[in-house]
Amino acid sequence: MFYERHSLRDASEHDACDGEWVQSYRQVSRGSYRASFELMTVGDAVISRERIAPSVAQETRSPAGKLSFIFPITAQGGWRVNGHHEMGTMVALRQGETELMTVVGEESDLISLTLPVEAIGLSTGGSSVRSRTRSPADEALGDWLSCLLGFGALEGRPSADLERVLPDLLAERFLDFWAAFDEHSKRLTSRRASLDLFRRVERHIADDPGEPVTLASLACHLGVPLERLRSAFLDAVGMPPSLWLRLARLDGARRELLDTRSSPGGVSEIAMRWGFFHLGRFSGMYRTHYGETPVETLKRLDRPCARPATLGSR
Fold first, then answer.
1. What percent of the chain has pLDDT over 90?
2. What's the pTM?
3. Poorest-pLDDT segment among 8-12, 47-51, 193-197, 204-208
4. Average of pLDDT values for 17-30?
5. N or C end of the chain: which has fewer CB within 10 A?
């Protein structure tokens, strides 16, 4: 995992910020140029965020063989993309090598996540640019990416547990985002085959209940594409595997909190062991699901509550 941040004083300095993209920036509005660019690499994934004070014109070519989630947060006057004016809240997907001419309004803020097609098990090819209205799930993904960048800025290198599971967690979240662009795609498995595949997942998790499981590791272990695994979960339990696995991790964390025989540990340590790296969100999800906070669970069992980790305090 690698993090860097640059403060930029001229549009030309933007051109070389992300080596995988071919890009050219030109300042459009008057005034001094103030901008920042953050970049974090997590395995094959690249998270970036750029904030630019003046209006700029951008010519960009995305890298071949990659998928990019584009999350515009704000810009005065919106974005004009290849002649189309975008004013509302939207997200975009750039697939493969695509070229865009974009004019961005003042005080812009944009987050992106780029992954190789192979990293998320997709078999799609070709190049395309698509956009749609932003959903609550998109908002959550953008907020999570922002939190990860903030963690990189404050903490530098993450714990071994975080570095081990984060690439797969990013791939899971990206797969859900990608699937929302193709809601009418035909199903890849029959109902019976879907149930059989879901039961194989359950058996695999039951074999090692203390080990947090990610969607990518499951697909690799079972020898099936990620999109087939997702379709099977929707058939079998009516929810995407990322949500089901999140609930499974939540259940594992609760069981550890409730188990007086387990090794002592505070909420933050247990949450991170089960793949939750934002303690505030974990506590909120836990309370919504179980009607009490993790700390209340420990107090009810008279177990010690360690001081929250730095990550959870944000």
1. 18
2. 0.67
3. 204-208
4. 85
5. C
